[in-house]
Structures are given as structure tokens and as C-alpha cells.
Amino acid sequence: MIVEQIWTANAYRNFNYLIACPDTGEALAVDPLDHRKCLAVARERGFEVTQILNTHEHGDHIGGNGPMVEATGAKILAHANAGGRIPNMDEGLGAGDVVRVGRTVELEALDTPGHTMSHVCLLSHTDTPALFCGDTLFNAGAGNCHNGGHPHELYQTFVRQLAKLPDATRIYPGHDYLENNLRFTLDREPGNARAAELLDGAGGHDPDHALVSNLALEKEINTFFRLENPIIIARLRETFPDLPGPLDPKTVFLKLRELRNRW
What we know:
Elements (H helix, E strand, L loop, with lengths): L1 E6 L7 E6 L5 E5 L4 H11 L2 E6 L5 H4 L2 H8 L2 E5 L11 E3 L4 E4 L3 E7 L8 E5 L5 E5 L2 E2 L2 E2 L8 H10 L9 E4 L4 H11 L4 H8 L14 H7 L8 H10 L9 H14 L1
Parallel strand pairs: 3-4, 4-5, 5-6, 10-13
Antiparallel strand pairs: 1-2, 2-3, 7-8, 8-9, 9-10, 11-12
Helix pairs in contact: 4-9, 5-6
């Protein structure tokens, strides 16, 4: 499996992806908002884009569909319940469905509600898994729930699905929010040495050659995976003095998401 991470350099800080079969050159475009860059990379690498996968229905993820289809004839795949919000969708996906690219690439659809209620992530069937996670999981962060999502569902997605993936799973998010997310981690857990180390290097962070983290690293630096950390819990009690005790992980997650909304 070949993965091309494409930095759009737009105001939303989107990443787009091409996932290609090395045997046939067939490729899947994930959330190809910047269709020009995606098509240019495909031409340069000799890929034939035959499918488009939208992780969810927001405009900064589906906005390039039309020109991509016009240029390539690719079919559009997305969550089965997103059809009414994604024009000209060809195939709806449910949990466990497999998206095949060429002869060698298999990507399993995960039903991952939270950011929206019609969100899918793709998990590769490779020796080292890769997760194309749209706006569900970011480096050191979690998606917001402002436009059609729900934080309770996002919590369930994190604890029932994402946290159970192999630690070696490589993380390919829909946006580059690394620096700000690390600052939030350190605001909630000032002694997090790994987050501080990464933030020290973030001044030279180049999204064109972005860090590709894995789940093990996320569990070190991502507050939304660190729900039983005593420092994080103590800091929440300082911020929300009326919280009951002891705090369960769901309450910690929801309060962290509430804080991140206005941080």
C-alpha cells in the first residue's frame, strides 16, 4: 500500500490522501478537497484515481468531489447515512465493509460517530495498520461536535474502537492541528514530557512532511486517551469545582471536550 499525504496549505489546514495499490497503480482519494493537488500528485506518481472516499459530509471534505469525478470518473464512497448530504454518492458504507483498491489494498470501514453521526474511518489490512481518521482523531486531539455530531458518541468511538486498535497503528488525520493540540495537552497535564518535547520541535514543523504518529504515541500525548490520569483529573476539578467524585472516564472526556471547544 502506498500512501501520499497531501498538505493543502489552506485556512482549514486540511490533509488529503491518495492510497494506491503498488501493483496496479489504482488509487483511492480520501477527502480530496484540493483536487488540483491530488490530481497533480496522481499524475506525478502514475496513479489512476478510481474511487473517492469521504470520511464525512462537511464541505471541507467533499468540496473537491465534483472536479475529481469530472477528471477521473471515480465513484464516491461514504457513510451509508450520508447520502442525502453528499451529492452523487455512489456507495454507502457500514461497519466492517471492505474497500478494495487495485489487487492488494484492503481498507476496512469503521463506523465512527461523534464529529458527525455519519463519519467513517478506514483501517488498512496491512502488517502495520494505518487509520485514515478524518475529523474523529487528530494528532494530540479529538474532533469537535459542533456541526451534526455529539460528544457522547465521540467518547464511545474513542473507548470502544480507537483505543482498542494495535499500538502500532499509524494515524492519518484530516487536519494538521498538532501544535495547538499539544498546547492543550500541556495546559491539562503540564508535566507531560513527551508532549513538551514534541512542542519544542513544533516551530520547525512542516506539514508538507508531517509527523505520522501511531496509537502508542497518541496514548502518550493525546489528552482524550488519558482519561484516568490523576493530574488531568485534578486540573479538571480546579476548573470545574462542582464536579462530583470519583470521576468516571466518560465525564472526564466530556469535560475535556467542553474545555477544548473554547480553548
